[in-house]
Amino acid sequence: MRLQKYNTFEALLVSDTFENLTFSCFPLQHPAPPQTSPAGSPAGRAAPVPSPSCAAVAFRSLLAADLRFSRQLGVCAGERSAWGSARPLLRLLEVSGHGVPWLAGTLYGLGRSESPAGREVLLNLLFALVLDLVLVAMVKGLVRRRRPTHNKMDMFVTISVDKYSFPSGHATRAAMVCRFVLHHLVLAIPLRVLVVLWAIIVGISRVMLGRHNVSDVAFGFIMGYMQYNVVKYFWLSPLSAPALFAVWNQWNQ
């Protein structure tokens, strides 16, 4: 009789331990609330309090590391920061990756170009820049991640979604323009290296200025790299969009 009671107690103990261990790392369906007596005390054994899943703990740890690392790298976030004297130079880099100068320069080039091949490349660059602005605005509006607390809101030409930081529009644009230029312009090797370095430095400067977290820039690089694939797939040419090129040629005459 004693042996039977011991085995029953041991089975309950093992079952309860396994349930808690499984629930903490691989949460199953949430258990039903326990039945309570009129006095308010549980009628049966109280359900264990669910612990955060392993994925949630890992995500929170990575997020905390991202915020801490980004703050440490924000050495030009203000004039009194560690490298505050370099802030004006990084703000020039900020303008070089902004959408407004790129859109204005592309439109100017389209108006001045007399080469059909050149107009085709510039028209697709304009399409790529507009696509980048739309996609980044959509993702920022969906994620709504606030900019770092140490950021100083003195950015060049902003709109409503620019109060959000994920992803970095400068990083997406730099990565996409870098791929575009390397694929469609014939450049010497030193110039190609400079284009790649420009894209990387623009992304790093966003963290140093305190505009973005590291994850914002990293995702922005990936997103911009993939955006060029979309532009390449929907490449505009006299064969794929004859009406568009006909209107453009008449407007230039």
TrEMBL record:
The enzyme's E.C. designation: 3.6.1.68
Any single biological process term in GO: lipid metabolic process
SMART domains in UniProt: acidPPc
Membrane spanning stretches: 89-110, 122-143, 180-204
Keywords, sorted A to Z: Endoplasmic reticulum, Hydrolase, Lipid metabolism, Membrane, Nucleus, Transmembrane, Transmembrane helix
Principal subcellular localisation of the protein: endoplasmic reticulum
Record Pfam families: PAP2
InterPro entries (UniProt xref): PAP2/HPO, PAP2/HPO_sf
GO molecular function: sphingosine-1-phosphate phosphatase activity
Coiled coil: none
Subcellular location(s) per record: Endoplasmic reticulum membrane; Nucleus inner membrane
Domain Phosphatidic acid phosphatase type 2/haloperoxidase, residue spans: 121-232
A single Gene Ontology CC term: nuclear inner membrane
Catalytic activity: 1,2-dihexadecanoyl-sn-glycero-3-phosphate + H2O = 1,2-dihexadecanoyl-sn-glycerol + phosphate; (2E,6E,10E)-geranylgeranyl diphosphate + H2O = (2E,6E,10E)-geranylgeranyl phosphate + phosphate + H(+); presqualene phosphate + H2O = presqualene alcohol + phosphate; (2E)-geranyl diphosphate + H2O = (2E)-geranyl phosphate + phosphate + H(+)
Membrane topology type: Multi-pass membrane protein
Keyword RNA-binding belongs to the record: no
Family membership noted in the UniProt record: Belongs to the PA-phosphatase related phosphoesterase family.
Name of the protein: Polyisoprenoid diphosphate/phosphate phosphohydrolase PLPP6
